[in-house]
Structures are given as C-alpha cells and as structure tokens.
Amino acid sequence: MNHYKLLLLPGDGIGPEVMREAEKVLTWLGQAGIASFETEFDLAGGAAYDAHQVAVTDATIARARAADAVLFGSVGGPKWDHVPYQHRPEAAILNLRKELGLFANLRPALCYAALAEASSLKREIVEGLDIMIVRESTGGVYFGHPKEIVTLEDGSQRAVDTQIYTTGEIERIARVAFMLAKKRRNKVSSAEKNNVMKSGVLWKRVVAGVHAAEFADVGLEHILADNCAMQLVRNPKQFDVIVADNLFGDILSDAAAMLTGSLGMLPSATLGEKDPATGKMNALYEPVHGSAPDIAGTGQANPLAMIGSLGMALRYSFDMLDTADLLDRAIANVLAAGVRTRDIVSPGISPVSTAAMGDAVVNELKALSK
Ligand code: NAD
Q1: Which of 18, 233, 236, 306 is deepest in the core (most CB within 10 A)?
Q2: What average pLDDT does the segment 57-79 reach?
Q3: Is 115 contained in some domain?
Q4: Which domain holds residue 213?
C-alpha cells in the first residue's frame, strides 16, 4: 500500500468543517487498503494571524514543501478585516503559491446530471458538461511591474498595471494543458487577445510552437478570450481544456464555474513543476469557495468542493486514477440519490448537514467498492 504525507491547512470559517469531511475519505482510503496517508495539521489565514501575526509562517511553508501535497480549506472573514494588508488571511494562499512555485491552476467545471437544474443555463446546454480551465497563476498582470497609481502634474492620477509573460512561462503552462488534454478528450483551446495585446501575440506563437514540437497529436484551437467567454455561455460543451493567462483565466474560470450551479461544488488544484531529479511536484488542492462566514458553524456548508479537491490530489499528485474516478462516481451517486446540502437543495428535499453529506459519500464509496 502506498504511503503519502499530506499537510492539512483547514483555515477559517467553514474551512475546518469541510476539511473534516475530506478526512473521513482519507480514513476510508486507509481502512480499505487503497493508500495510507500521514496527515499533519497547521494554521493558515486568520487562524495563523491570531497565533503568529502572519497569514502563514515560514515553518508552515517548509512543511508544505516537504509534504507530498497540501489540502487547503478556506481563509478570511470579517474578524480580520482590520489587519495590515500584507498579513490579510488571503495572503496565505498567495504566499504558498509563490513559495512553492505553483504556477498552474486547474479548475474543472463539471455539471452533474442531478444538479443541471441549479445552473443558470438550460439543462441541455450544461448537462454532462466536463471542461477543465488551466490558468497561469504566478505571472501576468497581477504580478508585473510597474504596478502603481501616480499623481500627475495637473493633480489627476494615472494607474498602471503591467502584463508580462516570458517564453518559458507560456511553455510550461501550455505543456500542462496539452498533457491534461491527452488524458481527456484531446483538445486544447488557447485563449488570448493577440489582436490587441503583444503578450497575446507571444502567447499564441509559443503555444503553437509547443504544440508543433511536442503535442501535434492533440487538437489545438486559438480563440480570442472575449469570444471564449461568449462561447462558454453559448455552447460550453464544445470545450475540453481551456488554457489562459492569469487575468483571462481568472475570469473564464469563474464564468465556467457558474455553469455548474453552486460554489460549494467546485474543487481546484494548483500545481508546480516536477523536479526532474526526484519526480516530486509541489501541489495544493483547495475548494474554490471562501470561508463563508455567513454559514460558518451552522453545519450547512457543502463539503463536496473540498472532497472533490482531495479527488484531484488522488488524480494529479498520486496517480490514483481509478480511486479518483471511484470518488467522482460516489459523489455523482449521492447527488443522484437526492442527498443535498442547503446550497444545492431542490424543492421537496430536506437539506442534510455537512457531516451527513461526508458520511453519505463514504458510505457510497464502501458500497461501490464491495
Ligand atoms: P464565499 O465563497 O466565502 O461565500 C459566498 C457565498 O457562497 C456565501 O453565501 C456562502 O455561504 C456560500 N458558500 C460558499 N461556500 C459554500 C459551501 N461550501 N457550502 C455552501 N455555501 C457556500 O465568498 P465571500 O463571502 O465573498 O468571502 C468570505 C471570505 O472568504 C472573505 O474573507 C474572502 O476574502 C474569503 N475568500 C477566501 C477564499 C479562499 O480561501 N480561497 C476564496 C474566496 C474568498
């Protein structure tokens, strides 16, 4: 039985509540003899600020680096609205991404048949949807310098953000997208704005180069990011993998997310580069949602985004594809059986608690693996 080391950072608000349900799945994986997990816990976000006056300590970052993967809950909340900007709870994720070199953010948008009604689009447009958005997450306009607001001679102000991408940054994110597509439906849509942005011209050229040199057997289309946004709400099932820079990826992944219904259903992964010598890849798995202060402590949070994030860890960090598929099937079956937390409830169904949803998934895993 393979043995893995996980760092669990439950964070704030509903983070610890949904993390507990993912832990139930980890316990089951051990009991079923599939894989054993050594788990270590640490503070992140507001909880870390309260204890150490920073959103994440260097010691925690070192632990994250030493682990095979990090499971992250959620951070933030009104309690920490007043803390200095550089120590705000959300800085925990940005620091972990930066320090662990996590450049590839993967966000699947999957529409379970049982939840198709929860989408804002018509059932036939979203039912069975399964797309993956790959967003470059350490470069681009969010990080480029100069980044400033300057006061001009006439007293008015000018704001500047800088979009920067190098060949290497584009090549490595393109490779992630092509490799993922090979394990899916073999198609990559690369979204940029080469019609108005130099970074778009380079993006398109470099993606085309990586495709021709290494992945000519994968389908590739170049698509303008604005058209991609339009196509996502017109006919999302035309896509398999979409790759985009940090800014466009941020917007496209949020649009795609909403096709599937609730925030409580959306997992994500952020991956680093594989060390060629050791084969180790830093990786962090987290639900897309935040700490939901409005429902924290009430037992209403949906744990499926967190459990789905663990599923992504099984798939991308531990190569446990069959087990990841099994977990996806268990989630789909639980939903099909009408088990619903409050955020995804439909008329005539009484919502279950966070813990009951976690139990239902584990029971379904047991039933499926008999
Ligand atoms: P949020 O995602 O926490 O909540 C938005 C809405 O969705 C709320 O009504 C909430 O109850 C609901 N919701 C979210 N997750 C849910 C779940 N699992 N089950 C059921 N309902 C769920 O976003 P927000 O309210 O804008 O932010 C709250 C705090 O979280 C802020 O401090 C924000 O900065 C932080 N935040 C953190 C992360 C992160 O940790 N990655 C991401 C986004 C926001």
Answers
A1: 306
A2: 98
A3: no
A4: 130-259
To test the pocket of ligand 1, the residue of 107, 288, 289, 341 to mutate (highest count of ligand atoms within 8 Å of its CB) is 289
- DSSP assignment of 232-291: HHH-GGG-SEEEE-HHHHHHHHHHHHHTTS-GGG-EEEEEEEEPTTT--EEEEEEESS--
Q: Considering the domain boundaries, does residue 123 fall inside one?
A: no
- From the list 130, 226, 237, 280, the catalytic residue is 226
Give residue-wise pLDDT tens across range 89-141.
999 998 999 999 999 999 999 998 888 887 889 999 999 899 999 999 999 99
Residue 239 to residues 189, 250, 364: CA-CA distances in angstroms? Answer: 7, 17, 30
CATH number at residue 170: 3.40.718.10
pTM (two decimals): 0.93
- 350 inside domain: yes
Domain boundary among 241, 259, 277: 259
Residue 355 has pLDDT above 90, yes or no: yes
12, 49, 68, 193: the active-site residue: 193
Predicted pLDDT of residue 307: 98
Q: Are residues 153 and 200 in the same domain?
A: yes
Ligand 1, atom 13, lies closest to the CA of 292
pLDDT band at 313 (very low <50, low <70, confident <90, very high): very high
Residue nearest to atom 1 of ligand 1 (CA): 290
